[in-house]
Amino acid sequence: MINNFKTLTRAYSLPVSITPFLIAFCCAYQTNGFSDTSYMFGANALLILIAIILVHLGGNLFDDYSDVLKELRSGKSLNEINFRNKEKAKLILNKTYSMKTVGKILAVMFAVPILTGIYFTVLKGGVILGLMILSGILCLFYPKSAKYGLGEITVGLIFGPLLINGTYYALTGNFDPQTVYFSIASGLMTTILLMAHSIMDYEYDITTDKKTIPVMIKNKPAAINFIGFVILAAYLFIIYTVIEYNTCKLFLLPVILTLPLSIKLVNSLYDYINIKNVQFIPKWYMGIMENWEEIKRNNMAYFMYRFYLARNLASIFNIILAIVCLLCFSPAGVTKIQQLEIIRTINIQF
Question: Which of 75, 58, 60, 64 lies closest to 10, judged by CA?
Fold first, then answer.
């Protein structure tokens, strides 16, 4: 049952959302984890994590549900629907889960985060409500974002700036410019995962009129070069933060330690478009590649190897950054929102 649910919701993608949460949690803990009671801080963090997981898995499921529903409305039966990716919505297509059951699951998965957002709105104010509404709009927009070439950017915003800064604000009541820069770097790493996926689906996306960044670039080698540029941009945001705020030099570790994996990903994508018959050998520094033997038996190694490389690059980058934040992070100072709150408090007192 659990394995079925993990397959249904594509739980293998969870590191994309959990690891950015760790960055925000570690920054928040260093900011005021000791000023709150350990119980409340830990309970609030756990509640946010559960909400993030449910939104992520619910988003995955909603994407599959929407695609199946679109096919059904076109007049096809479940037996006639055939997606290019054989893993897509397979438990819906083989009737393990009915469309009605999936609808109920989605209702529960989105209800919990909504209630969590209401709780933190009461606790921390209207900023949380604004962030929640914006995140909800982007999640609902994502299935249609491919029509406008905004799919990668939408996911990068959700799992980068919105997730990290929203979590940090919910736990501290503040924004910090350093976490903003970290969130942008993390979001850029997330977009790399989607762009790598899009390069491997390049021809199919063109035939289905799906607009992705590689399709809009109109050239696969140029799109791979663009991925290299995005990786560089993520690194530069970290380097800029270290220089601008004169912070701990350990913050450069995500840049240094993930560089070999970044190079491996870019080279493997070049191999994909130039050399079809290459040997896929997972190495320890590439991160976990679960169910690898089964993937090879299903002849999906060529795709999942590169998917795992991109996913693990983002995850390892985020984990290293989170560890450094736990060791070294200190708030940059009072933000504009804090200043407004201070002014409002003074006016009330007078």
Answer: 60
